[in-house]
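User: Teach me something about this protein's shape.
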Amino acid sequence: MKMLQLLIPTLVVLGLFSPRYAKAEDKNSGEGLKIGAYLGPSVPSDNLKQVYELANFKDQSVAYDFATSLGFHVGARARYGWTEALSFCGGVQYTKFPDQNIVFTNGQGVRYEIQTTTNIIPVFAGLTFFPFQFVATPYFSGEVLYSYRSTSVSNGKSILQDVLSPGTELEPKQSRAGAALAFGIELHLAGLQPFVEAKYIMSNLVGKADGELDRSFLNISVGLIF
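Assistant: First, the predicted structure itself:
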């Protein structure tokens, strides 16, 4: 009986200082610093259409109607836990939309076609929310961003081959402020955290020029946090 009386308090004390209890007590502390990388396709919205003007044809009512092809992205991110449910996040991404077909119609109704490449580089910062922690943990992110964009000729066609060589910039490089919303699922496997994520990026919410259309696209990403 005496041994039982001594054993019960001993087990209670050991339980209080066990890793499980320490984790429960520490649940409000953040996850610490995490870094990661990701990649995947980028799908432009219908708003990724723009009317461009080339210096060679400024006096001829130049109009371009182009359909944007599927793009891709690669990026790096960092995350620092504030609480168990909330972390600060930030990173940078390179996005490329290659071989966009642009149809050019001059003032006489003659149509030409060229291919262009559009690069968008957003730098972002925001918050990531984890509703609960499990082996498969969902999360939501909201971010503000600043993006850099350039569009150049990737392949000249028809008569424009003699006017526009590959690499020719179709417009000045632009920078805009925007925002992004994301939802993902993160796995916790032996210290590594692979994830899949869908993120909608609105790259030019602030600072658009008159007549500039919204440029937004959807990222589908796979990546690894460690």
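Now, about its shape. The two ends are 50 Å apart (CA to CA). Residues 1-27 form one domain. If you'd like, I can walk through any region in more detail.
User: That's plenty for now, thanks!
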